Amino acid sequence: MCGIVGYVGYKQALPILIEGLKRLEYRGYDSAGVVLFESAGLTGIKSAGKINRLEEILEGRNYDSKHGIAHTRWATHGEPTDLNAHPHFDCKNEIALVHNGIIENYRALKVLLEKKGHRIVTDTDTEILVHLIEQHYEGDLTEAVRAALIRVEGTYGIAVICAHEPGKIVAARQGSPLVLGHGDGENFIASDVSAILSHTKRVVYLNEGEIATVTADRYDITTTEKLNITPQIEEISWTLDMIEKGGFDHFMLKEIHEQPITLGNAIRGRLNFDEGIPRLNGLNLQYDQLRQVERIIITACGTSWHAALIGEYMIEELARIPVEVEYASEFRYRSPIIRDNDLLFVISQSGETADTLAAIREAKKKGATVLGICNVVGSSIARETDGGVYIHAGPEIGVASTKAFTSQIMVLAQIAVLLGRMRHLSAQQGIDLLRALQRIPDQVEQILQTESQVKAIAEEYYKSNNFLYLGRGINFPVALEGALKLKEISYIHAEGYPAAEMKHGPIALIDQNMPVVFIALKDSVHDKVLSNIAEVKARNGRLIAIASIGDNEISERVNHVVQIPHTLDIFTPLLSIIPLQLLAYHVAVLRGCHIDQPRNLAKSVTVE
Ligand code: G6P
Fold first, then answer.
1. Pocket perturbation via mutation, ligand 1, pick of 305, 346, 350, 399 by most ligand atoms within 8 A of CB
2. Of residues 23, 42, 69, the one with CA closest to residue 172
3. What pLDDT is stored for residue 506 in this prediction?
4. Closest Cα partner for 551 from 565, 531, 570?
5. Rounded to 10 degrees, what is the CA torsion of 13, 18, 22, 24?
6. Strand order in the sheet with 234-235
């Protein structure tokens, strides 16, 4: 979603801003713009489309400015046009603003401002805010921003500059992340650390309700109520090569191939083979507190929601605790029943998903203990939860989540073992489960060797208009995730279903043009899945099976097989999803799709 970059220092600002915007491209956007502080005033350049369109407009022009802000916009209010792109300006072109989030009371504010003579020219909610700042401007930008924000309802991460205040950026946060990058004689702001990582690793995360006044040599942080805040500088552990493609054609492919490492990171130091109890100290819960848990609710969005479904199977099976999984967007708007001894988990790669954050707040209001399973350290969700487990997958840039998904499952598996050990699982059972998890990274490596086989399948079916994904038991959510991956990046209509449900509807779709992907492992439901395969075959469907190594029988029943190694049934999703990620990737490549930034999607959905 929308991205912000700002620079003030001694270097030319424009290349730094453009580089920063490019680092944020992965978040998804549809227009881009910059504004530079120059001696003659503020110069704004913006355009619908990708950043290279902006670069074409800028080509050949020479900007000396050492101070500016920039933005990538993901349209919410108003179409993605040149005019609606950020930055937005006040009536006199003296104040410029970029904004992530949504100003919810913009209509009421617009009426008020127009009555006072402001000329509003775009369809955006953002433009209202810059006019509101103008309305309160009396020579001090920070104070004008503060006065305006008091009147605003909604969410924002903003950066503002003013033609009368050289070398100053004012930034503020409420519901949309912002980070300050600490440099030497220069400072940065960004909505995501990856935008400034090539310049500094020392950052200050702005908290909700904070306003920062940033110059080349200092930054002062206050709250909207004018309390002074002492900045906490944190060191980013991510390196630059972690956010670069490293020889792969796309981030998504790089991230698929990183999974043996990222899965290793998700268990590193956590598998305790003496007692068969994973060490998950971040949960901040004692064993007796874990024993008291009577019900678990897991809430999340998108791929993280699929991981939650898999977590449900794992926890119910290993710990025998009832689990409910709910979309965060639904959870936040009902009146969820939260009882004593309920434990709520939220899962989020980015840690910034608006619906998931709102679900946390709703659950906390009802007195729940909320734990997070997050990737991004220091993210809003990581900070608002009572404890949790980081998945340590490193930056995930491809919009279609892959490595974060498997790492989320790996963490859920350890939580399930931990809770099981607090109940009926013996030490030996715990140890055996952890040993199985320890083998997973190597097994994923082995599956990645099947890529050429998966690519050949993609070549046969990439022109299909529909795909069906079927699985049973714990591999039903894998079918959902396989279908989601395909539709996200190839725009092929794909549905995931529990294999046995097929006969209650989707079977009507099956003919010789319909590829049906079965997760058909040698597990407890194998025979049942074979019957479902027969039902598809009888209707001439094209069958692709993800099967267990050594299951030679299945080759006779289907058109294509990808074999994967054995693990415990309960951990099979960690393996069965890998060929499905590769299949989606290769189909999308063959269809010439934009793999890392699929249309209309955003990596981090910070609006409702
Ligand atoms: C967006 C992304 C998905 C992601 C979902 C939830 O829709 O495109 O890949 O699964 O948000 O994001 P989160 O960061 O909370 O896991």
1. 350
2. 69
3. 87
4. 565
5. 50
6. 41-48, 31-38, 67-73, 3-8, 187-190, 179-182, 202-205, 234-235
| Residue 96: C-alpha distances to residues 24, 80, 162, 242 (Å) | 20, 19, 6, 33
| Rounded distance from Cα 93 to ligand 1 centre (Å) | 37
pLDDT at 483: 98
Is the distance from CB of 226 to CB of 368 less than 8 angstroms? no
Q: How far apart are CA 83 and CA 120, in angstroms?
A: 11
For 258, other C-beta atoms within 10 Å of its C-beta total 23
Q: What pLDDT shows up at residue 34?
A: 97
Interval 411-449: pLDDT, tens:
999 999 999 999 999 999 999 999 999 999 999 999 999
- Which residue's CA is the nearest one to ligand 1's atom 3? 302
Task: Tell me which residues are annotated as active site.
Answer: 2, 603
The residue length of the chain stands at: 608
How far is 125 from 104, CA to CA, in rounded Å? 8
Please check whether residue 14 is in contact with residue 34, taking contact to mean a CB–CB distance below 8 angstroms.
yes
Residues 6+ apart with CB under 8 A from 52: none
Q: What is the per-residue burial (b if ≥16 Cβ within 10 Å, else e) of 123-139? A: ebbbbbbbbbbbbbbee
Which residues' Cβ are closer than 6 Å to ligand 1?
Answer: 301-304, 348-350, 353, 356, 399, 401, 601, 603-605
> Which among 210, 217, 190 has a CA at the least distance from the CA of 201?
190
Strand partners, 6: 69, 189
Strand partners, 210: 173, 223
Residue closest by Cα to atom 8 of ligand 1: 603
At 117-155, the pLDDT tens digits run: 999 999 999 999 999 999 999 999 999 999 999 999 998
Asked if 484 and 495 touch (Cβ cutoff 8 Å), the reply is no
410 vs 180: CA distance, rounded Å: 32
| Dist. CA 511 → ligand 1 center (Å) | 33
Share of the chain above pLDDT 90, in %: 85
Alpha carbon distances (Å) from 365 to 155, 195, 241, 328, 360: 19, 34, 41, 15, 9
- Residue 491: exposure state from Cβ atoms within 10 A (0-12, 13-18, ≥19): middle
CA of 178 to the centre of ligand 1 (A): 19
Which band of pLDDT confidence, cut at 50, 70 and 90, is reported for residue 164? very high
375, 406, 595, 605: residue to mutate for ligand 1 pocket, most atoms within 8 A of CB: 605
**Confidence at residue 120, expressed as pLDDT on a 0 to 100 scale:** 94
| Ligand 1 centroid to residue 604 C-alpha, Å | 6
Please report the atom of ligand 1 found closest to the CA of residue 488: 8
Q: Quick check: 608 pLDDT over 80?
A: no
3-state secondary structure of 273: coil
Torsional class of 550: left (φ above 0), alpha (ψ -120 to 50), beta (otherwise): left
d(CA 412, CA 352): 20
Give residue-wise pLDDT tens across range 239-296: 888 888 888 999 999 999 999 999 999 999 999 999 999 999 999 999 999 999 999 9
- CB contact at 8 A, 522 and 551: yes
Residue of 129, 118, 133 whose CA lies nearest to 77: 129
The pLDDT of residue 61 = 81
Helix 427-448 × helix 259-267 angle, to 10°: 160
